[in-house]
Write a structure and sequence with these properties.
Shape: elongated
Structural class: alpha/beta
Radius of gyration: 27 Å
CATH superfamily of the largest domain: P-loop containing nucleotide triphosphate hydrolases
Strand order of the largest sheet: 3-4-2-1-5-6
Length: about 475
C-alpha cells in the first residue's frame, strides 16, 4: 500500500448495510474491506428490507470496481474515482479500495473467541496496524460494542458520522423565532403594509446577514401580538404576512381551535394550499395528529381541495412484536392506527348528535380516509391527496424520499413525529429521516416546519412528559 500520509479506514459490515455510498465519503483516504465483511454482505443480500436493498447496492458498486481488474491491480488497490457518480469532475480526489487478498492474522486476547465474525475483523485491523505502523489505521463501525472491543485490544475506532444531518438535535430548525423587544423601534418607521384580499402584508429592510427562511414564523411577545410568516427575503427586503388567528371560535377548523401560539402556526400552514410539504415535530400531547386531521377533513370534505385522506406510518412496535396479522392491507394496519381512531372520535363527538348521526358520520369518514401500508407505496403516484405520515421519526432518509416522491399534482404531505421517541434500533435523533427532511426542506418556498412544545393533552400527560 502506498501514500503513507493517507489514513486507512477498515469498514465494518453495518456501515455498508446502512449506507452503500459510504465508499465515497472518506475523501482522499484509503478503504479496506475484509473477507469477513464480504461474507456478511453475501448473507444479507436476500429479502425486501431496506438493509437488504443497501447490501445489493453495495455488492453492485464493488462488482463495478473489480470488473476487468487483474489480481495484481486488486492487490495494489483500486481507485474509487472510476465508479463515483460524478467521476468526470476534475476536483474529485478519492483514495484506493483494498480487499483482503491474503490472510491477515494477529493474536487476540484468549477471552475473544476467534470464530466470531466481529473478532475476525478486529484481527484483520490489528494485523494491518502492525503491517503499516506509519499509517493511522481506523475501524469504522456503527456497532457500539465493536468500538468498545476495538479500544480494549488497541485498535483505533470511530462511528460513521456522514449520515448525521446535524451535530446535535438541539440545532434542528424549529420553524419559528421570537422577535427582539426593540423590533418595532428598529423597523417600525420604514415598514410598509398593504392588504391583498383578506391577508395583510408587510415589507421591511433587512441586511445581508438576515437568516430568515421561507415560511418561518416570527413571534412578538408584545401586547400587539405581531405574529407573521416570512414569505420572501430578496434584495435586502423581507415580505411578511400576518397570521390568521385560529384561537378565535369564529375561525374553528372542524370544531377545533388552536390553544397556543405554536398550534396557531401549525393550523396556518395546514390550511395554506401553497404549502405542499409540512413537518410537525412535538412531544406527546402537543396536538399534532388532531390538528392535522381537522385540517384534512375541512379541506377534503368541506372545501374539496383534496379527494381523499391517506394515512400511513412505520410499523415498528414499542415492545414485543405481536406477529403476523390477518385480513386486508387496511385491516392489518388498523392496530397501528390507534392515534387516528382516537382523534376521529374527538372530531365527531359533537354535542346534541344522536348515536345514529355519529355512526353515519364515522361511515362517511371511513370512505374518505384510507389507511395504507408503506410496503406497497413504491411505484405509486397519488393525485389530489392529503397524505399524513405518522411516527415519521422511525423512517430512514431513503424511506422518507420514497414516500414523498409518491406525491402527484395537488397533493399535500404532512410528516408527524417526535425525534425523542425513536423506536427503530438503527436510527438516532441526528440520523432519522424526519430530521433529514426538516433540514433539507427549510429553504423551499412551498414547505414549512413547526416544532410544537406545549402539551395540551392533560395535566397528567404534561407532568409525565416533563418529569419522566
Amino acid at each position: 500500500m502506498t501514500n503513507e500520509a493517507r489514513r486507512l479506514f477498515i469498514l465494518d459490515t453495518n456501515v455498508l448495510m446502512h449506507d452503500p455510498m459510504a465508499l465515497f465519503n472518506f475523501e482522499e483516504h484509503d478503504l479496506f474491506i475484509s473477507m469477513t465483511v464480504l461474507e456478511e454482505l453475501d448473507a444479507g443480500k436476500k429479502g425486501m428490507s431496506e438493509v437488504s436493498r443497501n447490501v445489493r447496492e453495495t455488492n453492485r458498486l464493488i462488482d463495478q470496481i473489480i470488473s476487468d481488474a487483474s489480481f495484481e491491480e486488486i492487490k495494489n488497490g483500486l481507485p474509487l474515482e472510476r465508479i463515483h457518480p460524478n467521476a468526470e469532475l476534475e476536483s474529485l480526489h478519492l483514495g484506493l479500495l483494498f480487499f483482503e487478498t491474503e490472510p491477515l492474522i494477529s493474536e487476540l486476547p484468549a477471552s475473544l473467541p476467534s470464530h466470531k465474525a466481529d473478532n475476525h475483523i478486529l484481527q484483520t485491523g490489528l494485523a494491518l496496524k502492525k503491517q503499516f505502523p506509519e499509517r493511522q489505521v481506523t475501524l469504522v463501525t456503527k456497532d457500539i460494542n465493536m468500538r468498545i472491543k476495538s479500544s480494549t485490544v488497541g485498535l483505533h475506532s470511530e462511528d460513521y458520522f456522514n449520515d448525521r444531518v446535524l451535530e446535535d438535535a438541539d440545532l434542528l430548525y424549529t420553524g419559528w423565532e421570537e422577535l427582539p423587544a426593540n423590533f418595532f423601534e428598529e423597523h417600525g418607521k420604514s415598514m410598509k403594509s398593504w392588504q391583498d384580499g383578506s391577508s395583510t402584508f408587510y415589507e421591511l429592510d433587512v441586511d445581508e446577514h438576515c437568516r430568515w427562511f421561507p415560511n418561518q414564523c416570527l413571534i412578538s411577545q408584545n401586547d400587539a401580538g405581531f405574529n407573521v410568516i416570512v414569505r420572501q427575503v430578496k434584495n435586502n427586503k423581507a415580505t411578511l404576512e400576518y397570521m390568521q388567528d385560529f384561537t378565535n371560535p369564529n375561525n374553528s377548523i372542524w370544531g377545533i381551535n388552536s390553544r397556543n401560539a405554536e398550534q396557531n402556526i401549525a393550523l396556518n400552514f395546514l390550511m395554506d394550499p401553497e404549502i405542499d410539504f409540512l413537518t410537525l415535530l412535538g412531544v406527546a400531547g402537543t396536538g399534532k395528529t388532531l390538528l392535522t386531521l381537522a385540517a384534512a377533513l375541512e379541506q377534503t370534505l368541506d372545501e374539496n381541495l383534496y379527494n381523499e385522506i391517506i394515512m400511513t406510518r412505520a410499523t415498528i412496535p414499542v415492545g414485543e412484536d405481536i406477529g403476523f396479522l390477518p385480513g386486508t392491507e387496511e385491516e392489518k394496519m388498523t392496530p397501528w392506527m390507534g392515534a387516528l381512531m382516537d382523534n376521529l372520535e374527538v372530531l365527531t363527538q359533537s354535542e346534541g348528535y344522536t348515536d345514529w348521526e355519529k355512526e353515519s358520520t364515522q361511515q362517511l369518514l371511513s370512505k374518505r380516509i384510507k389507511i395504507k401500508s408503506m410496503n406497497f407505496m413504491r411505484g405509486r403516484t397519488f393525485q389530489k391527496k392529503f397524505i399524513i405520515i405518522d411516527e415519521a421519526q422511525n423512517l430512514t432518509p431513503k424511506q422518507m424520499k420514497t414516500l414523498i416522491t409518491r406525491s402527484g399534482e395537488g397533493t399535500k404531505v404532512i410528516c408527524l413525529g417526535n425525534i425523542s421517541q425513536i423506536d427503530s434500533p438503527y436510527l438516532t435523533e441526528t440520523t432519522t429521516g424526519l430530521t433529514y427532511v426538516v433540514d433539507r426542506f427549510k429553504y423551499w418556498h412551498h414547505s414549512a416546519h413547526i416544532t410544537l412544545q406545549q402539551g395540551e393533552r392533560s395535566r397528567l400527560a404534561e407532568f409525565a412528559s416533563d418529569n419522566l
